[in-house]
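Entry 14. Ran structure prediction on the chain below.
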Amino acid sequence: MKFLRLKVFLIILSVLFIAAPGKADTLRLSQPEQLAAPLSLTPYLQVMEDSLHLYYLGAIESHPQWFRPYNRFQSHHPRSTYWLKMEIATDNLWQPESLALAFENISLVDLYFSHSNEPYQHQQAGIFRPASAISPDDSRTFFSFRLQAGKHYTIFLKVLHEKGYKPELLFKLQQKEGYLRTLQRKILSDSLTFGALIIFLLYTLLSWIVSRFRPYGWLSLMIAGTALYSLSMNGYFIDLCFPEHPATGWLFNLPFIQIAFLAVFLLMMDFWQIKTAAPKLYKYGMAGMYLMIAFAIAKNIMLAVTNDYRLGNILVACSFPIPGFFFAYAIWHCWNHLNHAQRFLAYGIILFGVSAIAVITVVMVMHEQAITINPYISNFTVLIVVLLFSIGLKEELRQSEIKRNASLQRLALLQKLQNDSLEKKVAERTEQLVARNARIETLINELHHRVKNNLQLLYSLNQLQLPIVLDSKAQDILKSNISKIKAMILVNQKLYQFDDISSVNLKEFIEELSAYSERIYDTKGTVRTSLSLPDDITMDASHILSFGLIVAELLTNAYKYAFANTQEPLIRMSITPITEHTIQFVFSDNGPGMPAGRENVSMGVPLIKDLSRQLNATVEIRNDNGLMYTFTLAV
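Output, structure tokens:
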């Protein structure tokens, strides 16, 4: 019984001792060298938790018994308002200079400091604080102020954290100049890393634009997601895009890294051609991808509503084994089918997975302190992964180029063989055509000679009969037939004495036909012939025979009927071009003309008109001071 009483008494004493207000040390400053390096303020802080957010500075200041030394303080709720108090004393040797009161990863911090009975000076900071509420000399992660020599200062810090994590009340005091140098070194390091990512991003984008090789596009998306994640985790993205709404900007952290993760997944699916190489794995992978996208959207909506980043990180850590297992199974399943270039991607995926595990582990162990470490892990990993991916993609393109060149060489060889075969067939066909043309030419020549011989035979027979025919009318008929046959012979000669048998020169043809008619009918040379014929007019071979018969008939009629009682008989023939393919042929004599009613009695005029119709020519006959025939026809 005595032992039980003693035990209860000791417990009561312990409770009273813990509940008793404690007092932290006062920070005494005499030389600026004390703050050349960051000085932790933990030993000098007293803490009070306001879980209901009820108190204000006046109430806190008037109840110092509510505070406990930091090393004896236990927080109850992460979203409570925490009041911190500390005392700073400067001696008379202290030289006033700007100091930086720095902290990390706290949503909202209010600073109140004063000496003696002076009013408290109020400054605001915090990673969720709008930029317009922060003093120009301060930033989201530090306050800037001056301490005068020989003064005693009371400082209050009001801390409100909104991420669901217990706030790390780790405040440090340092000379502002030294703190800014450290901050500048960090910014320079971040800039160099981000610059390297931008160079890789531009390289992969240009490679994708030039080559149209789709994996370069997914690699660009991965680099962009990682670079944006790094910018967001370090606060640069918020300062650039959401300076007045930093809490909104902070929501982009996870989506950016999820975009990078999705890009790696699509890069693997595309570069390894899983859709054709492993259709079932591709089906499961796409289903898992859509599931992860839906999960990411739901998680981001939850973060936007609750601001519970701790829960969000826990959900990410719990969901990681699903894609991690898929990547591991895909590497194991496809490894034996991967070529040398594709295995570089496998190395990069393995490294990417290891870095993801490291990031999640750091987050689970260090909580919000991981914010200062994870960007470096992700950036370093991505630089190495991009190098591996780039080597793999470059090797794949080189292999594709080698295969393409080999295919082009095979195609060129096939084309050469085809050309040789075609040339051989063309040569054989040419020989056949040459032989056939020679045979046709022989047949045409034979036909020509037969026609020529037949016409010559008719001509000779008529010439032999001419002396023995005593009747004058019969002689005239026979001479007319001989003239027509001669016209046919001339046409035959003109067509086949040259290689080009498609047309006949009209001037030469008419001159020869006129000369022959003169030898038959005008043996004494009493009739003068006047010709006005251009040198370059030709007529198609299909029309020349009809035209020749017309000219022969006109000459025969003129010699027979026009000059019986005519002094100085004259025959005129002229050709005048009308258009490029039309001429006017005029034949006239200076005889007495044709008596009225004689046009249809003899055979001459109806024959001339019939032949004109065959030529599609128009003919006009004038009977005035001799006969004049005007023909308009095509050549």
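The two ends are 149 Å apart (CA to CA). Will compare against last week's run tomorrow.
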